[in-house]
Task: structure prediction
Amino acid sequence: MEVTPFTRSPATSPATRGPTLPAHRLPYLPTPLDAFNAAHADEARALLLRCLRSLRWSRRIAAHRPYPDVDSLLAAADEAAYDLSPGDLAEALAGECLPELPEGTYSAAHTALGAAHAAYEARFGHAFVIYLGDTHPDEALDRILEAIRSRLTNDPEEERVIAADELRRVAGERLGQLLSGATLCTSAAPPRGGYPRSNAYESGGATGHNGSAPGK
Result:
């Protein structure tokens, strides 16, 4: 007897499916980190100089691209900032200046801040820099004035160490803002050095306009 293969009747066969459609995927959109990794060396260094006015630091960070993630880049920038030589620090501080106060600040506050800062510059020969972190804009002036008056009592070497640390933190804050897609506001005051300036104070970050930290 010839045996024929068993086949299901139409009533018992499973429902017929059409072709499987691929899962829907959104198009990949470049991130600020992607743009930084792919940028021409001059463009990458220019962005870094918005965060810290040290040519050697900017060259060092740009030369080690690409970075796999933002944390890796920030860690590299922070590490390079610890390597500031006296010349690197002087270069970075020369690109700093007093932060702009929030719009509407009364004139007496400008006068008080200007006088305190003039005394600081006369003693140490460079602009005052401080990392404000999450300080509310309404409290920034009091904190800056208090810090200037406190640090005026430091000897030059002690203040150099403090200023270097403040610049390192300022630079990290500025770089983080740029990599998160935030735009650093540009100060109306003229730059001290030849680099473009950003005002991290207005962006809720640091004060003293641009941080410092060199790399090799």
Notes: The chain is about 50% helix and 0% strand. The two ends are 89 Å apart (CA to CA). The CA atoms of residues 132 and 139 lie 10 Å apart. The chain has a mean pLDDT of 78.
